[in-house]
Amino acid sequence: MLRPTRNYLLAIMAGLPVSLGVIFHADMWMLWVGYVALLFLLGGLDVILALSKSQLAVEVDAPRILHLGEPANIDLTLRAPGWRAKTMVEANIEIDGDVRPVPITELSFDGAGSAFCELSLEPERRGTFEVGKIHLRWPGPMGLFTRTTSVDVGREVSVVPNIIAVRRAAIRLASHNTFLHGMKQQKYIGDGTEFDALREYIPGLNIRDINWRASARHRKLLCRENRCERNHRVVLAIDTGHLMREPLEGVPKLDHAINIGLLLGYMSLKVGDQVGLFGFDSEPRGYLEPQPGVRTMQRLLEQSARLDYSTHETNFTLALADLANKLRRRAIVVVLTDFNDPIGAELMVDNLTWLAKRHLVIFAAIRDPTLDEIANSNPDSLEAVNRAVVAGDMRRDREVVITKLRRRGIFCVDGAPSEISVELINRYLEIHRRELV
Question: What is the C-alpha end-to-end distance of the chain, expressed in Å?
Fold first, then answer.
């Protein structure tokens, strides 16, 4: 598309006095015609000599995954073989999603007929957004007309949680000796049920591990060495209901739950288990089949980006029934959620109890740390006393629900976002050691 520039419009307006002079002096019409012809001639030359769309090749390299809080760039490269003139091109990106506005960027052609720039992207929330079009505009050599064109990118970008903290926590936990148990075939006496090897009995070993048949055959006492079973199925069931929209420490509970789940998923993949992801609120919101291997972490990130913030109330009956229907084998189901009162949690408790009859369920509740701070504070006013009493009642009601779940055979972890990750992984490793799956 061709558009006249401000300079061209000013040149046209500069000819208005000449056109008015024709009214008083008829001989000036020749000058007016000549001026108009000159403007058309210069405008036509500017259009002809300008860089055409057919000469321009556009290359766009947009990332498919962004980490929340970490800016990324879209690489824009323009190529015009044979074009030697220095031309300034304005680039504007069209984005549909929660991303900070990208300012118009200028890039200049060098003598080799190419131009390059980086368009910065800074997502404001987790989810997905689409890079629609990139609009380009450049002037002619005399600056009288501008050409515009659009390049359809059509790239969907996933904004996933920032896993830098996840990696740091994983490295810290991986350095602990208990983490190695399960990832490698360590010779921990008495742990595990899967046969690994036979070794000669020495004082201090468990006499119940003596293999009498092999000992009779070799005429010396031989002991079984066991190892932990691996390749378990772990499903991260993340609640995306309206309660998970509540911010804790400036971050919604849902994002805390996703970060905790990704950390546990990373550790589970390291010990050789299969990890999947399930999102739910009033209905199931996505399911990733448990898979092994390092590439599964990338799939978990992409799937977690699709878990949107919901305003619906969580339907545990529908969600857990759908999950149980998808799981054909016994699995470790980690439910990351939260609740407000024991009455509203009754249905949640009943459905988790039903799910625990077939699968091993870990219930992880994300607690607001301010609840304990208010309950344990020393009130100095009547209003502060009221708040402390209410916080204490809410904490007792919460403990009632947690106790009820534990009595029904469900492993429970309840804590602040900064504490629950380590406690959840310790519980997971304990389940591995005790061979409870």
Answer: 66
Same CATH topology for 1-159 and 164-180+230-434: the answer is no
For the whole model, what pTM was predicted?
0.65
SS3 string, 321-362, reads HHHHHHCCCCCEEEEEECCCCCCCCHHHHHHHHHHHCCCEEE
Fold held by 164-180+230-434: Rossmann fold (3.40.50)
Distance of CA 219 to CAs 195, 200, 212, 280, Å? 21, 11, 10, 60
Domain boundaries, the chain: 1-159, 164-180+230-434, 193-227
User: Of the CATH numbers 3.20.20.100, 2.60.40.10, 1.10.540.10, 3.30.450.20, which one belongs to the domain with range 1-159?
Assistant: 2.60.40.10
Per-residue pLDDT of the chain (437 residues; tens, 9 = 90+): 777 778 878 887 877 776 666 666 666 667 777 777 888 888 888 888 888 778 888 888 888 877 776 777 888 888 888 777 778 888 888 887 777 777 888 888 876 778 888 888 877 777 778 888 888 888 888 888 888 888 888 888 877 776 665 566 555 555 554 444 444 444 444 455 566 788 888 888 878 888 898 899 888 999 888 766 668 899 999 999 999 988 887 788 898 899 899 989 988 888 889 999 999 999 999 899 999 887 898 889 888 888 888 889 999 999 999 999 999 889 999 999 998 888 878 999 999 999 999 999 999 999 888 888 888 888 888 888 888 888 888 889 889 999 999 999 999 999 888 888 888 988 998 888 777 77
